[in-house]
Every structure is written in structure tokens, then in C-alpha cells.
Amino acid sequence: MNRTVFHHSILRPALLALGVSSIALSASTAVAQDVPDDAADGEIVVTARKTNERLQDVPISVNALSGDQLRDRGAVDVKDVLRSIPGFSFSGTERGLGNYNIRGVSTVASSPTVGVYLDDISLVTVATGFSGAFDPVFFDMERLEVLKGPQGTLYGGSSMGGAIKYVSAKPNLRAFGVTAAAGVATTAHGGPSYNGEMVVNAPLVEDRLALRAGFFYRHDGGYIDNGPGSIRNANQSSAPSPVYTPAFQPALSTRSASNQNGSDTYAARLSLEWQPDPSWSIRPALFFQDYKLRNPGQFFLGVSALTSSFRIAQPTDDKAGIYSLNIDKDLGGVRLTSLTAYFDRDLNWVRDYSYFIGGLVAPLFPLTSRNVSDSKTTTFSQEVRLASNGGPAARLNWIAGLYYSNQDDRLVQTVTTPGATPIIGTEIGYFGDTFTNTKQYAAFGEVTYAIIDRLDITAGVRLFKIEQVVDILGDGPFNGGLTQVDGRRSTEKGVNPKFGLSYKLTADNLLYASAAKGFRPGGPNRFQVNPVLCAADLTRLGLTAAPDSFSSDNLWSYEIGTKNMFGGNRVMFNGSLFYTSWKKIQQQIDLSSCGFAFTGNAGSAEIKGLEAEGRINVTSAFQIGGTGTYTDAKITTAALGTPARDGDEVQAVPKWMASAYASYGMELGGDWRLQMRGEYQYQSKARRQFERLQSVRYADGVTGTVPNGAEIRQGYSVVNAFASITRDATEIRLYANNLLDARPLLDTDFSIGGDRSTTIRPRTVGVELRQRF
């Protein structure tokens, strides 16, 4: 029997009976040689500081969920669990197109504020309206870690707000095992979902060589219907001035489709673990994922719920391969690590631009316009580091390394309108070809020294250089004719320092404080904005043309916190206070009158907040807990040429986030055990756009402004429930996500041509059978 399987099937009920929290079980999937001796009681082990540490011993804010916990919740990707992680929020609902933020460090710009990593491999790509953060599915994952605050010392410039770490399961050298799972779910107002997976772990040479391989497939049923109907345009009034009544007009769609936003995800993993002797670990690995979305999850506003009237199909195909070679060598007191990786991502989509183009040029509204966007990113990276190997009891622990990456990113976009030649002189209204090459060089190090027993001081630094080259070719009437930029270059050099102090009152009570700098490079704007077509918005911003480039931004973040276990692990409480000063914020500035956007520097901000999480084992079978976050993130100095004002909230940051849960376990007889859990999640309202007003054209031809209905995203609550029945190596999991069928409007869009929004997945109830052999 697989050692990991044995550990789950025997140890999990025992730990629950002893009152160990569910979050403390996640280390059980780790390979034995990767878990320090002092974590043998099953407490979670993380690698937030690129070394193995118990979660409660890490003197920074980290949240972690185990593979078991992810499966218990029926979670597909990180969006399904982020509401239960303090201070973690996002904008964008589609996989591969989201923007994540941690602790209020939130922008929509070409460079994200949160790093995304799979086994320490950076998955960060250029973010545009046509590409966002890559989201691996939760397949054969050992755990998910979310690191709070700037992580630039060990993880680089895109982690100024924090980092998301996916940690995959490693091959086991000593035991053969097979895990198979299949599940089915139903979504309210939508179609069925189903999934299947299989993972094989096979030692090939005892204690020397093992293989781990698996395949995953999931179909997520859609819940948006498409059919003939009308479309509302908040930028037009059907009444003369000053009466404002949003205008409706026939969508001119003949396309009918039920549950059109269904998707299919295919994933495969292959890894080898080779240990020529116990001092070596050589691990080549491959991860492949292909996500096919039939149509986006947008629905029209002002019409029947969860319906749209798009004229054409709008498929998305997000395909990625991650290839890596990790080599570890114990040199006796020092461990050498080399991580070589290649990340290849193709994101291709089609979107219906009929209403958008028809809003720009009214005679084109009866014609069908199609936008085809192809993004391709390839990244080669190499990291080499040395780390002390003395363990947590050593007086001095340190890590030092070098990092290099070379990323090519290309976006080709074509907007065509068959039949448009008599009106605009061509059927190709816009063509854009943007190529970006980014090279990063860095040297980093971090040292922790025990000044006295239980009092540690930490200092770290990252020296970096980032070089960017951008080539831009644009053409078509909506581009203002042919424009070309060849070899627009930018170079940034900088230093990211970090300081920390931690004191252990007892083995289970930790106090810590830290200060760290975060940084993002500036660079050239990747789109040529038509100054004639966008004149109204540019004038409103006090500009005659969009800027060619934007400056770097940076922040300093300060935190004090505590991590505590009381009463023999019956009570857990962690809390922290944080303050961030953010300068020259990079922010995407949308020009609603013409549909273009550029990145500008939106001034400065201050972020103040607190987080708390706790858990009480009321009895050996009954547990309650929860989290709470308060974040006051405000613009302190708004820059000229942006719609932000002093005192505005930073975008996409809810002031309040909270969650609560209760869990109960019981024996059913015949060696079967039942574990139940219910949870409540809440997010308060958040600013989506800085603009308080939107432009309107009245029926009599008069232009004016009205309050921007998309300025604020309202708050919402979600209730989930889970249950699992286990016996030895058999698990049956039941889950109900969004039990009360909440439908908040998340990404509301009032851009020219039609009002639309997105929401979270409606109530979904599912069951999964998992068998280990």
C-alpha cells in the first residue's frame, strides 16, 4: 500500500479524534523525506521561505490548504477557495483572465501585483484585457499556499502584494499506489458537471527511482443561455435630456444556445524522482493543461436573468505546458538547488464585438463584428541557490541565489466586420501585433540569526535588473491608420530589502514583526490609443494623447503579528496588523468613449488593515472557526491625467471580509466515518472604477453625464456545505457550493454597445468517489 494512502486512511480519523484542526492534516500528503521530524504529528508544513517549516513557526502571514481540503470543497481552481483566505480577493471570473490582489495591493495593469508559482516556477505573464493570471487546476496538489505582503526578496518583483504557491505531490520512492476518482455535480439554472482523474505512483528502483503520472478531465456545466432578444446601452438614453432612461434596442441575434458557458479542462502530470544516493534529488517534471471555454460567463443586464443575445460563438482555448528540472544536492551543512523551467502558454479567443463597434459607428450596428485575439507567452527561467541545512534548531540559517528569466509575449488582435467597406473603407477595423521581450536578472539572499534563545532576526535583499523591449504594429480606421513602434526599450534596476524580528514566547506562541519593500518595473504602453476617436475621454483627463509609457511603482509594507496554539492544540489564534505605503501606482485607465485603455500612474495610496483567524476544538468531534479581515486602502494623492481622486478606495478591495465554519465528525459503524462542515463567507462592497460619472447621449442628441452604475461592486455572502464519508482507502465526498444561490454582479461593464456583467457559479451540488489502491 502507498505510504501516503496509509497515512491518510489511518492517521486522519485519529488526529480528528484528538482535536487536531483540519488545516493541520495537509502535511500528510508530503513525501516522508521532505517533512522535518518536528512535524511528524501531522501539522502542516509549508515552503513559504523556500525551506520546510511548520506553518505556525513561519514569522510571516501564510495561509495554506491541503489537497484533502481542496477536494472536500469541490474546488476546481483558486477562485473557489479564496473567499475563505483572509485578505485575498480578485476581479475577473474566467479562468486565465483574472487579477488577484492581497491586502489591498490591487491594480489592473500589465504587470500583476501577485506572483503565481507552481513548484517555485513563476507563471506570471503580461496582463492585458486579453490575458490574465494563469490558473492551474487543483490536480494532484499537495497543498496551496498564499503568502501575504511583499515577497520580492525570494520571489521577485511581481509579488509586491504577495504570492500564490501551488505545490504538487512528489513521487514516493518506496511504495506503489494508484488513486482514482470520479464525480458528478449539478448547477442551478445550468447543465451538469462531471470529472475523472487517475494518479499512479510507481517505484522503479527501490529507494532510487520513482515515477508519478496522472491524467485529469473535468467538464463544468454552463448556466448562461443565449437567444434572440434586446440589449441595454447605459451610454444612450431613450428619452430626451434631461430625463435619463437607458436605451434598449434589438440585439439582432439569431443564435440560440443553452448553458453556453460550459467548459472542459484536460490536465496531465508526469514526474520522476531519482536519488543516486540519499544526498541527491533529481526531479524532472511536466505539467500540461488545456482549458476550453465554449463562451464567456457574461450575461446582459436589464433582461431575463442569466441570459445574453450575442450573435456569434465566443470560444476560449487556454493551453499551457510547464517543463522543469529540479536538482537538490546535500553538500553537508549546505544544500544546493538548481531549478530550470520552461513555461509555454497559448491563449486564443473569439469575442463578439458587434455591439461595441456598432456603438462607435452607428451604421455598423446591423453588421456582425468579430474580435480574434491570440496571446502566446514563452518563459525560460533558471534559479540556483544555496541554503544552510542545519534545520530550525540552528542558530544561523541562510539562503542565497541567482535568478534569470527570458520571456517573450506576443498579442495579435484582429477585428473584422464583413460588409463594412462602404462605411469605413475596409472590413478590418483594427489590427494589432504587439511583441514584448522581458529579461530579468537577480541576486538574492536572506539570513536568519538567533540573537538569543527564541529571538530571531531576519534580513534579506534582492538586487535586480529588468530589461524590456516592445514592438507595436497597429492598423485600421479604429487605430487611426498605420502606426508602428520598433524597439521601444526600458530598463529598471532596483533593490528590494526585507527585515524581520520574531520571538517565541513558548513553542506554540510566536510574535513577529517585519518590514519589506515591493517593486514593479515601468515600461511602454502596449497599445496605440487613437487620439481622435478617444478625444472626449482624453480631454476629460486633461490629456491630448495617451502617454507612451508608465513609471515603476513601489511600496513599503510593515506588519506585526502573532501565531498561537493553546490548550494542547485545542485553540488556535493568529492575528496581524499591517500598513503599506504605495507610490506611483500603476493602473489601467479605461477610455469608455472609444474602448481603448492605457496604463498610467494613478498617484499614491495608503493601506491599513488587520487580519485574524481562529479555531476552537469544542470537543474531539466538534470544531468551530473563522477569519476576519479589515482593509482600508485609499488613494492619498491622485495623479493628474487619471480619474482617481484623493480619498478614493483602491480598486477591487473590499473593506471587510469574513468567514466562519463549523465542523463535526462521527463514527458511523463498520469502520465508516462521517465528517461534516458548513461555512459562511462575506465580502463587503468594493470600488470597481474610479469614474463617478459616465457619458450619455440623449435621444435629442444632447450629451451629458449620469452617475456611473459600474463604479461600485456591491457586497455579497456565500454559504457552502461539505460532507465526507471515509473507510480505509475509500472516500465519498459531497459538497454544496453557493447553497443559497447568491448572484452578485462582479465585473459589470457599461462600455459602448451593451451592459453586461458576471457572477459566481450558482448553487452547485456534487458528489465524488475517490479510491486508493
From TrEMBL:
Domain (TonB-dependent receptor-like beta-barrel) ranges: 217-739
Topological relation to the membrane, as annotated: Multi-pass membrane protein
Subcellular location: Cell outer membrane
Record carries keyword Signal: yes
Keyword Transmembrane carried by entry: yes
Domain TonB-dependent receptor plug, residue spans: 55-163
UniProt keyword annotations, A-Z: Cell outer membrane, Ion transport, Iron, Iron transport, Membrane, Receptor, Signal, TonB box, Transmembrane, Transmembrane beta strand, Transport
Highest taxon in the source lineage: Bacteria
Residues passing through the membrane, by range: none
Signal sequence coordinates: 1-32
PROSITE patterns named in the record: TONB_DEPENDENT_REC_3
Family to which the UniProt record says this protein belongs: Belongs to the TonB-dependent receptor family.
Protein name as annotated: TonB-dependent receptor
Organism classification: Bacteria, Pseudomonadati, Pseudomonadota, Alphaproteobacteria, Sphingomonadales
